[in-house]
Design goal:
six-stranded mixed beta sheet, globular, 6 helices, 20% helix, alpha+beta
Length: 305
């Protein structure tokens, strides 16, 4: 489960409890989380592990900032803050198979998907006109620290792959996918004719990783899979819907994806107003209030023994 928890659930009344309830409902083996802040000298991982334990659910985690990981299995090793750019990692073992889980929260600045929509990718202010020149768009995209983070992940995961570990990366990428900004969608969602080879997704694919949601739903026009924005808009006059929360995996012969779903409201914010989605995506409705401005993603994998 990839879950941006929007400042630890502090942006919505009852948000923290809602995060706990969603995790408890779906009982995922692993949860990768974004926007962990450890506010007021508290330890988020201790709070959430304790809250889940009160519901009879045993999870393991470790101290971290910005990104966090929950595991239903004991942790064999884990990274410390700033060891991997914009990410944390843990290694665990299930039935003799080691698994490396990475949690990412990539740079939100230079949000180049805004340029075709007529908004600046740094200030988020409205521009005099949309920018549709691909060179300008990709220049802004590459000016972020996202490429550095993805490169750091690829290099770190090489060791895991050499040890025959399953490698999974969940995160809020603050960037779209090249599998979504295509010929089929270039005139939708205020893409304004732009077909973009977004750096993070193209780099991961070149290095043997697959996007679990797109593996299950390869038709990006019928299954857009939007995870943003769930309930807050930054570009009030644009259709800023995008899929920016992902679960990637290293595609070796022993791992395949069985299913992938979006958790959260079946509505998105379009031009500042709530709008029901009309695609074929499967949305699992929240148990109560939805605690974040992103939707979550759950992917289920099958592993050959």
């Amino acid at each position: 489960m990839q879950f941006n928890v929007w400042q630890e659930g502090t942006m919505i009344t009852g948000g923290f409890d809602a995060i706990v309830n969603e995790i408890a409902t779906h009982n995922p083996d692993f949860v990768t989380m974004s926007e962990v802040r450890n506010y007021n000298n508290t330890s988020f991982y201790e709070r959430i592990v304790q809250a889940l334990e009160k519901k009879g659910m045993k999870y393991f985690s470790f101290s971290s900032y910005d990104t966090a990981i929950l595991s239903r299995y004991p942790i064999k090793e884990f990274s410390k803050d700033n060891t991997i750019h914009s990410m944390h990692k843990l290694v665990t073992e299930i039935q003799g198979q080691e698994i490396a889980i990475y949690s990412a929260h990539l740079d939100y600045t230079h949000y180049a998907v805004y340029l075709p929509r007529g908004y600046d990718g740094n200030s988020f202010a409205k521009l005099p006109a949309p920018v549709t020149d691909l060179n300008q768009i990709m220049k802004m995209d590459l000016s972020s620290t996202r490429p550095i983070a993805i490169k750091a992940f690829v290099e770190s995961a090489k060791e895991d792959i050499s040890k025959n570990r399953i490698v999974v990366l969940g995160g809020d990428f603050n960037e779209a996918s090249h599998l979504d900004w295509t010929e089929s969608t270039k005139n939708l969602y205020d893409h304004r004719g732009v077909v973009a080879p977004w750096n993070s997704s193209t780099t991961l694919y070149k290095n043997g990783y697959k996007d679990s949601y797109r593996e299950v739903y390869p038709n990006e026009a019928e299954y857009p899979g939007f995870t943003w924005p769930a309930q807050k808009s930054w570009a009030l006059e644009a259709d800023e819907r995008d899929r920016i929360d992902f679960i990637y995996y290293y595609a070796d012969s022993k791992v395949s994806v069985e299913k992938s779903v979006i958790v959260g409201p079946a509505t998105s914010i379009v031009k500042g107003k709530e709008q029901k989605e009309t695609g074929h995506d499967i949305f699992i409705a929240p148990q109560g209030i939805w605690p974040t401005d992103h939707k979550a993603v759950i992917s289920t994998f099958k592993v050959k023994r």
